[in-house]
Amino acid sequence: MARQGMMKLGMSMRGLGYHPAAWRHPDVPSDGTLRFEHYAHNAKMAEQGLFDMIFFADGIGLRERDEPRGSLARSGYELVEMEPMTLLPALSVLTKHIGLVTTASTTYNEPYHIARKFATLDLISGGRAGWNIVTSWSEAEAKNFNREEHLEYDTRYERAAEFVEVVKGLWDCWEPDAFAYDKEGGLFYHEDRMHLLNHKGKHFQVRGPLNVAGMPQGRPILVQAGASEQGREIAAETADVVYAAADSVQASKAYYDDVKARMAKYGRDPDELKIMPGVRTIVAATRAEAQAKFDRLQELTDPLVGLARVYAALGDLSGFDIDGPVPEPQREAQVRSATERVMKRARDGNLTIRQLYTQIVGGGFYLIGTAADIADGMQEWYEAGACDGFNVLPPYLPGCVDDFVQYITPELQRRGLFRKAYEGATLRENLGLKMPRNRWAAERAAHSKAAE
Amino acid sequence: MARQGMMKLGMSMRGLGYHPAAWRHPDVPSDGTLRFEHYAHNAKMAEQGLFDMIFFADGIGLRERDEPRGSLARSGYELVEMEPMTLLPALSVLTKHIGLVTTASTTYNEPYHIARKFATLDLISGGRAGWNIVTSWSEAEAKNFNREEHLEYDTRYERAAEFVEVVKGLWDCWEPDAFAYDKEGGLFYHEDRMHLLNHKGKHFQVRGPLNVAGMPQGRPILVQAGASEQGREIAAETADVVYAAADSVQASKAYYDDVKARMAKYGRDPDELKIMPGVRTIVAATRAEAQAKFDRLQELTDPLVGLARVYAALGDLSGFDIDGPVPEPQREAQVRSATERVMKRARDGNLTIRQLYTQIVGGGFYLIGTAADIADGMQEWYEAGACDGFNVLPPYLPGCVDDFVQYITPELQRRGLFRKAYEGATLRENLGLKMPRNRWAAERAAHSKAAE
To answer: In sequence order, which ranges of B350-408 are alpha helices (DSSP H)?
Structure first.
C-alpha cells in the first residue's frame, strides 16, 4: 500500500557536518564555520534542492571534554562556529523559500528575548522561522551561565514547559488586526486588541506585551526532539515538527504511532505534527564508490578523537595499543550502563580499540549507496509509516548537501515522493500545517457567536 | 583655526524616526517597523551617504505608560519594531561598508550570549559590528524579566562593568593564530593558544572559551552614552564611541574635553574615542520651507500623546482645555525637580498646555534649514572641538535619511568635512581606530621579548 503525499525534508547544517573527521576531508574548508560563504552556499544549495528547512543544532559552550588530554585540539568538531540566531537572518536574505530553524535553550535564555528574536526572524524571512526547543544538558554550558552543574532533568522540563507557554503568550499579545494605522484619526492600534500577558509563574514573571507583532506564520514553527515519556507528551501537545532518533523502521514506526496517538487528547489531528528522523547519506555512482567515500572519512578519524568518544564509558585508553583488544574497564571509571553497552559491542564483535571507536564515530542511521539505494531506504521508512520525512544530517559539508541535491532529490522526485516546487510562501504552508489562531481573536469570535 | 580631519557620522535608525508624530507623516509608512524593506531602504541609503554606521537604540518592552488613558494607542512610537540583533545580520547582507551597531542591555542578558552574537555579527559583516552598552532603566522592561522594579543605579553599573569585562575576556579566548587547520597532521588548533576564561565574579561565573573566534575587528566596537560621572569614567576607560547629549557648543565642548582628559590615565590617546552628539536635521531648499516641514510634523502630534509627555511632571491634564494656561501642579503628583523645570518653562514662555507639550515633543538638538545652514551648524560644533562627528537622529523615516544623503552629505563633502569614499574595510578602520591586541598574544609577545 503506497502512502499518499510527499515527504518533508530538513537539512541540518551545523558546522562542517556530522562526522567528527569532516574537517580533515580534502574537500571540506576547515575554516568554514567562521566564514559566512560556507553557510550561504549550503543554505542556497538546500533551497535549490527544495528542502523544507535548514536547521542548526547549537551548543552554548564546548561540550566535548579534552580527555584523553590533547583530544580537543585534534577534533575540530563543534568547537567554533557562528551563533545560529545571528546567522539565520543573514541567510534569510539569500534565500526565498526555505525554512530557517534553530535551537535555543529554555534553560539559559529569557522568554521575552526568544519570543522577540523568533518573531523578528519570521518577519524578516516572510514566514520561515522555526524554533527547536531544547533544555541543554551539559555541564560545559552550565559553566558559561553562572552554574557549576546543569539543572536537574525535572526542573529543566518544568522550566521549559513554562518558558514555551510564556513565549506563545507573548506571540499572541497583539491580535492580527490590532493595528489601525489611522493617520487621519490619529489611532495607531485598537486598544481592545492588545493584551498584556501578566504571566506570574514559578520560573517566570512576564508582563508583556511583546514589542513585535504581525508574524506571517501567526507564530514560528515549534520543533522538538521528544524521545522520553515526558518529551513524547510535550511533542504531542505542542510541537509542529519532531526531530526523532532513527534506530530501525520497526522502532521508529512504534515511536511514530505512539506520539501520533497521543495527539487526539489535545484536540490535534495527526497531520498537525511532522515526525522526521535523522539520516546520514553518502551517495555515489556505485555502491562500492559510496562505501569507499565513507571508509575514507572513517579513516580520517584521529586516534585521540576516537578515544575521546569512548572515554566516558571506558576511561582513558590512550596508554593502550589501539590495534590491540579493548581492555576490561577499570572499576572506578564510569556510568555502568554505558560501559556495559560498549563492552558488549567490543566483545561481540571481537573488536580492537580502533575498530570500536571507528564504529562509534561512524554511528547513527547511515544510508550509503547509489541514489536509488538511498531513495529505496527513505521510501521504505516513509511508506511503512515510520516518519513524515527526514532530517538529513550530512556527514561533511558542503559535499554531502551538494550530492544530495544533485543525485538524491531528483530520484525522490521521479518516484513522486518529493515536491518539484515549493507549494507555499511560508514554512508552515510548505509543511502543510494550519495557521494557528490567536487566542484572543478566537475568544472574540466565540463571544460574538454566543451573542448571536 | 580649522580643525584637521573628517567628521564621523552615525545614522540612528530606530523605528519610524525620532519624532513621536512621525507615523502620521504622509510620507512615512506607518507599518514600516514591521516590514524589512523599510529598514533595508534606510540602511542602504545611509551607506550611499557614506555614514560610518547605522545604529539601533532598543527597548525590551513598551516603555511608555498609557497615561492619560488611551495615549499609548495613539502614539505609534516605539511600540512594535524588529529586534535589532536579529535585524542587523540581515542588513549586513544588503550592505558592504557601513557599521552595524545596536544596543544590548547588561541587566537583562548573559555575557556569553552577547559575546557570541556580536562576534558572529562581526564575522558575517566582515568587521562591522558595534555594541551599544546600556543598563536599562525602565520598570516596563524589568517587568518582562521577572522583576517588579528595575535594579538600582549602582547595582546596574556594577553588573555592567563586570558584564563588559567578561565579554571582552570571552572575545580574547582564542588567540588570532590559534587555528592550525592542519589536515595532514590532524591538528585543528594549538592548545596553548586557546584560553579558558574561568571568570568568577560577584554577578557572573563564566568558564569559556567562547565558541566563536576570528573577528575581523579583533573585537566589535564598544559604544556608550556616558553622561554621569561614572559614565564618563567608564567611557574614558573602555568606549570606542560615545553617543553624547547635545545642549550647546559650550556645554558639549566642556563634556568633550573632560572625557578626553580622563583617557590618559588609562593609557589611551584622545583619538581612540569618538564623541558623537545626537542631532536632528530637517533640510529643504529654503529656510522657510524647512521650518514649515518641521511645523507640520509638530502639528501632527496628537493631544493625548502630547499630554503623555508631561504626565510624569504634571499629572493628568486631559481634563483641561489644552489651549488654556498650564494649571498649577497638584501637590501629590510627581518628581519635584522635573515638575519645577517644566512649570518654569511654561511660566517663562506664558505657554498654553498645547504649546508646552509641543515644545517638549519637538525638543532635542535640531538643525533646521538649508543644506548650507545645517552644514554650518555641524561645522561650528566640529571645529570648536565639541565633537568628533554626529549621531544623526532623523525625525521621520525614510524622508530624513533620504534628504540628508541627497542634500547635506554633498555639502559636508564640498567643505572637506566628510569622506568621499570609505577609507577602510571595517567599521574600526573607517572610524580610524587601532586594532586591539589580544591579551594573551600580547602577553606572549612580552614574554618572548623578555626572554631575548
So the answer is: 353-361, 371-383, 399-403
Count the neighbouring beta carbons within 10 Å of the beta carbon of residue B62. 24
- Judged against a pLDDT cut of 70, whether residue A299 lies above it is answered with yes
Residue A173, classed as helix, strand or coil, is coil
Segment B97-112, tens digit of pLDDT = 999 999 999 999 999 9
Residues of B in contact with A109 (CB under 8 A): 113
Helix (H, G, I), strand (E, B) or coil at A28: coil
Whether A74 sits inside 8 A of B183 (CB atoms) is: no
3-state secondary structure of B395: coil
Q: What is d(CA A120, CA A129) in angstroms, rounded to the nearest whole number? A: 9
SS3 B341: helix
What is each CA distance from B213 to A31, A79, A88, B121, B178, in whole angstroms? 11, 10, 18, 11, 9
Q: Which domains does chain B have, with CATH numbers?
A: 8-284+370-450 (3.20.20.30), 292-361 (no CATH)
Cβ count within 10 A of residue A446: 10
Q: What is the pLDDT of residue A118?
A: 98
A80 touches chain B (CB under 8 A): yes
Residue B423 has pLDDT above 70, yes or no: yes
Half-sphere exposure of A117 (CA within 13 A, CB side): 25
Give the C-alpha separation, B84 to A88, whole Å.
14
**pLDDT of amino acid B48:** 98
Which residues in chain B have their CB less than 8 angstroms from residue A144's CB?
A: 112, 206-208
Cell of A320: 593502550
Closest CA to A100 of A132, A45, A59, A55: A55
Strands B187-189 and B179-182: antiparallel
Interface of B with A in 134-193 (CB under 8 A): 140, 143-148, 174, 179, 181, 183, 186-191
Q: What is the ipTM of this complex?
A: 0.97
Residue B34 is given by DSSP the state: G
Share of chain B above pLDDT 90, in %: 86
pLDDT of amino acid A331:
61
CA dist B246 and B364 (Å) reads 8
Which helix or strand (DSSP H or E) is residue A313 part of? helix A303-314
CA of B215 vs chain A CAs: smallest distance (Å): 9
The secondary structure of residue A3, as a DSSP letter, is P
